[in-house]
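From the shared-data thread, chain only:
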Amino acid sequence: MGLALLSLGSNVDPLRHLQAAADALRARFDKVRLSSLHRYPAVGFAGGDFLNAAAVIDSDLDPQSLNDWLHALEDAHGRDRSGPRFGDRTLDIDIVYYDDLVMEGEGHLQLPRAEIRHAFVLKPLAEIAPGFIDPLKRESLMALWAAHPDRDTYFEQIDWNA
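Structure, as tokens:
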């Protein structure tokens, strides 16, 4: 149905959970591209560093069904939604873009996701989909990253097989 750009993150046994998420994405979808893994400080709360990555998939699911599938994957990895909005996470996967759709006010699904403003979302996406055009800003992800205030900040790259 569409091209989906995803943001993945974890700060609880992150390498194990992110590798399992990558395996699940590969098992479910025909085409999956993954960015590098990078270490980023927690945003919005005092917590351990996150490992973050991005994935681009060709999805046969509509955005809401894909979001439901991703939530089930998070739940299977012990995601606890009962606490504060910002907190430690075993697995967090968000649809950042789905083709050039713009959606607001449809449940919790917002496209594009406002979190694109954070380096931990934008940098990995710009790495694997540099020419993708943000439907609101009408700029490529590479251009958005080049203009980002953290573009010159070093974020440790982690080997997926570490």
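The CA atoms of residues 73 and 109 lie 16 Å apart.
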